[in-house]
């Protein structure tokens, strides 16, 4: 089968089209870097959600809870280690950020495990109930975050080594955005290797297409689903921690806010497709930054417009998954 | 008399509000091929899916090798040595032919001797080994679906309309493959609409009508009885050749 390159080509196409509209090449480079960083952070948060939908047809509107919890847990650890965050040492900065991110992933993963058992499991195969109970789960989680961390937003300064920008001639690229791009690409590579080079990945890909047949071959798809759900929740926690540092503030609504972008991305990409999710996230990140610069008044609706255009072109998303 | 490998007694299955199976009873002897025949809507596919645990029996017993498997989950039933080829084939279209077969071989990488035997019957699978299965023709997909079920030795194969959409030459290969399987390691329960195929291969037959088994016996006797065929299937086998 010929590889479908068209959706992938959209990424450079959007960037090329934006160049004359932005006008200044230096602004264009800055916006492109910002768009890629934003896109890859959204990809980290969205990748687990698209797989859980693909595997078990579960519409988890509570995914934002894992993002928010990840952001709060990471913020707490970083605030506790604030002397290491403010010192001018890359290693001490990383010694603070590393455990914070790890804690965010662990807590979000554990929360995901509980969420699947208590909230998702009773409503397998019932989309309307899934939407209702997972949305309810998100609301409860938001309120619990306010109970635990208080109703005020937490200000989260980036560590000293990740402040400022790399200067390439006239172009300034924020250091944190470079880190976000690196982390996003590492997550994408890890997922791609897992899905394409391992037996568990083979099972996940087959399960996304036809879970019933995977069961008929002798594999317990529900166990696989729980594993993917927990991993997806942990990745959402990682994304939440990254997004909190990106915004430099954390609020209880952070998950719900980003979840809108996450859903747009997985719909654009094709539900169940990690590759599609990757391309969709980059498109959303880039277009949000370009349009925010070129026409700020329409920036809010730009992602919806992008989704509408892509669905008019490919109604099942950029890389639709073959379903039974 | 030897105990049958598979035995259904009083099996009832409901799908939603609809009662599909109304007390199905028949046996599949060890080491033979049983044809499950019947008009469209008689409950043949539901019977296979119920055996496989894909739909739950609401009453009755499904005994496999002496054990009631009616309450077991589908993966546990598969792990007892039962393979299933659905009518829709259910191949994984985004996975390559190789990946489809690798996944079906639960105990490790597919055995090369076994693969060579499968390739000797279904040559196209070798030719398109690294291509996504979604690119195969309908007949090739059917070959892959059957190959997936036989990539490792299984005690019982449940196959739903294996010849649907296949060219005559491929059907001949499939007949040879099924003969070798039933003479060797496996017993087969095959749902089939192609009566010429059914008559050539079947040792025993169970004919379903309206969610029940209306007739069981040897295929030879059934093939010779035009009046019974007319009564149960609406036409004689001779009309299908």
TrEMBL record, chain A:
It is found in: Cell membrane. This is Branched-chain amino acid ABC transporter permease. Pfam families: BPD_transp_2 (PF02653). Belongs to the binding-protein-dependent transport system permease family. LivHM subfamily. The chain crosses the membrane at residues 33-53, 65-84, 90-115, 176-195, 224-246, 258-283, 290-313. GO terms for molecular function: transmembrane transporter activity. InterPro entries: ABC_transp_permease, BCAA_transport_permease. The lineage of its organism: Bacteria, Pseudomonadati, Pseudomonadota, Alphaproteobacteria, Hyphomicrobiales. It comes from Reyranella soli. GO terms for cellular component: plasma membrane. GO terms for biological process: amino acid transport.
TrEMBL record, chain B:
GO terms for molecular function: ATP binding; ATP hydrolysis activity; branched-chain amino acid transmembrane transporter activity. The keyword Plastid does not apply. CDD domains: ABC_TM1139_LivF_branched. GO terms for biological process: L-amino acid transport. Belongs to the ABC transporter superfamily. Keywords: Amino-acid transport, ATP-binding, Nucleotide-binding, Transport. Coiled coil: none annotated. This is ABC transporter ATP-binding protein. It holds the Pfam family ABC_tran. Residues 6-235 form the ABC transporter domain. InterPro entries: AAA+_ATPase, ABC_transporter-like_ATP-bd, ABC_transporter-like_CS, BCAA_Transport_ATP-bd_LivF, P-loop_NTPase.
């Amino acid at each position: 089968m010929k590889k479908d390159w068209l959706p992938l080509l959209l990424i450079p196409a959007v960037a090329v089209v934006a160049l004359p509209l932005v006008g200044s090449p230096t602004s264009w480079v800055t916006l492109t870097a910002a768009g890629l960083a934003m896109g890859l952070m959204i990809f980290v948060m969205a990748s687990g959600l698209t797989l859980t939908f693909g595997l078990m047809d579960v519409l988890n509107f509570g995914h934002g809870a894992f993002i928010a919890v990840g952001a709060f847990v990471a913020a707490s650890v970083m605030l506790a280690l604030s002397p290491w965050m403010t010192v001018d040492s890359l290693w001490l900065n990383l010694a603070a950020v590393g455990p914070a991110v790890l804690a965010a992933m662990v807590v979000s993963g554990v929360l995901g495990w509980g969420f699947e058992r208590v909230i998702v499991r009773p409503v397998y195969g019932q989309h309307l109930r899934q939407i209702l109970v997972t949305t309810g789960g998100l609301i409860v989680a938001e309120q619990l975050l306010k109970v635990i961390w208080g109703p005020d937003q937490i200000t989260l300064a980036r560590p000293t080594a990740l402040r400022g920008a790399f200067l390439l001639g006239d172009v300034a690229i924020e250091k944190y955005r470079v880190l976000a791009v690196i982390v996003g690409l590492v997550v994408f590579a890890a997922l791609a290797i897992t899905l394409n080079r391992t037996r568990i990945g083979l099972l996940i890909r087959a399960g996304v297409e036809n879970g019933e047949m995977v069961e008929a071959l002798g594999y317990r798809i529900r166990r696989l689903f729980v594993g993917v759900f927990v991993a997806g929740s942990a990745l959402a926690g990682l994304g939440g921690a990254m997004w909190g540092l990106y915004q430099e503030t954390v609020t209880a609504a952070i998950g719900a806010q980003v979840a809108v972008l996450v859903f747009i991305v997985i719909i654009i990409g094709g539900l169940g497709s990690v590759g599609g999710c990757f391309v969709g996230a980059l498109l959303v990140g880039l277009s949000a930054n370009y349009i925010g610069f070129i026409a700020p008044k329409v920036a809010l609706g730009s992602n919806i417009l992008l989704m509408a255009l892509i669905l008019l072109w490919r109604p099942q998303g950029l890389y639709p998954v073959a379903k039974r | 008399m030897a105990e049958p490998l598979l035995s259904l007694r009083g099996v009832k299955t409901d799908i939603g509000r609809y009662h599909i199976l109304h007390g199905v009873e028949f046996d599949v002897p060890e080491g033979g091929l049983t044809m499950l025949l019947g008009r469209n809507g008689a409950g043949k596919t539901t019977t296979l899916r119920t055996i496989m645990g894909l739909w739950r029996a609401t009453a009755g017993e499904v005994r496999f090798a002496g054990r009631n498997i009616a309450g077991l989950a589908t993966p546990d039933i598969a792990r007892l040595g039962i393979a299933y080829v659905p009518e829709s084939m259910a191949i994984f279209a985004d996975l390559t032919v190789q990946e489809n077969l690798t996944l079906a071989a639960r105990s490790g990488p597919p055995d090369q001797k076994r693969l060579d035997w499968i390739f000797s019957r279904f040559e196209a699978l070798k030719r398109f080994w690294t291509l996504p299965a979604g690119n195969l023709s309908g007949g090739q997909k059917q070959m892959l679906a059957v190959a997936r079920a036989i990539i490792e030795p299984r005690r019982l194969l449940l196959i739903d309309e294996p010849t649907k959409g296949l060219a005559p030459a491929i059907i001949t290969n499939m007949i040879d493959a099924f003969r070798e399987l039933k003479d060797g390691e496996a017993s087969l329960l095959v749902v089939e609409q192609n009566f010429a195929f059914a008559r050539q291969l079947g040792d025993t037959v169970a004919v379903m009508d309206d969610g029940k088994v209306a007739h069981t016996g040897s295929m030879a006797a059934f093939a010779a009885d035009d009046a019974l065929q007319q009564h149960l299937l609406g036409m004689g086998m001779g009309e299908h050749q």
